Write the structure tokens for this entry.
Amino acid sequence: MKAILNQKAFGRLSPVAWGATALVLLYAGFYLGDPATPGNRFDACCIKGWIGWTDQGLYYASAAAFATGNLESSQHWYPLGYALLAAPFGFLRSHRFFLVDLACLMITYRAFLAFARRAGLSAIAAVVIFLLTICLDPRLFKQWAIPWNTSPAAAAIWTLLAVGAAHLQGRRRPFLLGVLACAIPAFRPTDAIIGAVCLSWLAAADLRSSRLRWRDVMLVTAGVGTVALPYAALHLAIYGPRMSSYMLNSRSVGFTLHDPVWRAFVLLIEPRRWFFAGQGLIERVPWLLLGFAGTFTAWRRGGAPALLAACLTAYCLLMLSYVDLLPTGLWRYFNIHYFKWTLPGFGLLAWLLVRDLRGHSRLAWGALAIVLMLSCVRVIPRPAAPNEAAVAVDIPGPPETEKDTTMTPSLAAVDAVGLLQNVTVMRAFPLPGGDGVRLIGLRRDLQGDVRWAEGHGLPMPANPLPQQRWAEKISFGYPCWLPPHPCKKEPRRE
């Protein structure tokens, strides 16, 4: 009898509850089953798991320092919000982020469902979209199990979007809007653009409808101050009236508007002819094309979908211009976690687009046609003319490792224009044949022959072979993201 009652109880679970149960089980399974989870590999080098990774090790160190009241600046590299959340969970030892990240996933889920309801979707549709976009690809869902500061940022972003969508429909909570908009950069300063876009969008909507009130403005400001003032006080206690090392490093790396077509191609479509490795985001997640097309139609739709489209567009344009975002690191170093909050958003817009396509909307079909045509653009290497600027230069030499090249900020070269600092101006990485290094200009093209800067270069043979210089050829053809992936073959070297 008890078993029958339990079966009936499970049968009465709502789709939302079923989705939450599936997420908890998947999260626990991915966390406990990941080889990099601390304690899963009992050899001397790896027993710490991801605590030995650079980013995760810094999160753990900061959380442990907060737990003991240690405010030494050497213990706190990243923005402080994520470590503060994990500080009370020291009793979990090497797993102090387990409950924090699970809570972030569940908050993101509930906030997405709330937003989707405001966008006109049923609960079942919202649950299906979230589960498919978050869980279908194991590499993507894994980013929720690994400690990343993008997990609390995603929870804050989707909660802000849900509250913002409610605001557009008359349920106004301006103080909470201010708190959430300011909480986002406490985890990831780059994501502050989402709070800025969201608040600006809501203010513009209120102005158009003559509903903007000074009382609301003051409440939003008070909400911002509720987070900003304590955070500023903690910053002063740790770093004094100075920028943290993280802030200085982020400023030196920065963003670039150089060659946006090339950057979009290697990140979204096909990087292998330029970087010899990696995978375009669209090749891995082809349904994103529907989401991109849905972004166009969402502007016409207005309301919550238009708010989401504005935030997604601003964020993705910003991240595509981030100097340190390269296609090799997208999967090898899991930089894909930057975009994990965007996936259910693009999934929602893709769902709305498909609904419009079934309704024979000309706008929807036109947007999809434009996106599909843009995905047929190719940006492939070709030999550069002698006096032509080059996107990439191959410098023959002895075999090098990624540690000596890609991961070495002190590496530098000089061309006809001036200094090329690794990481911030150009990026170096080994040639796959083990016979030299390729340099790719990130902030500008490379002019003339390139040589290593004095005291900041790599060993060179006495009589090196000629350098290979590569410019770009923009063309239009069969999509490179579709099998048999015609653009991934390495260019012929002369």
Notes: The mean pLDDT is 93. The two ends are 78 Å apart (CA to CA). The chain has two domains: 15-33+97-371, 384-476. Residues 15-33+97-371 form one domain.
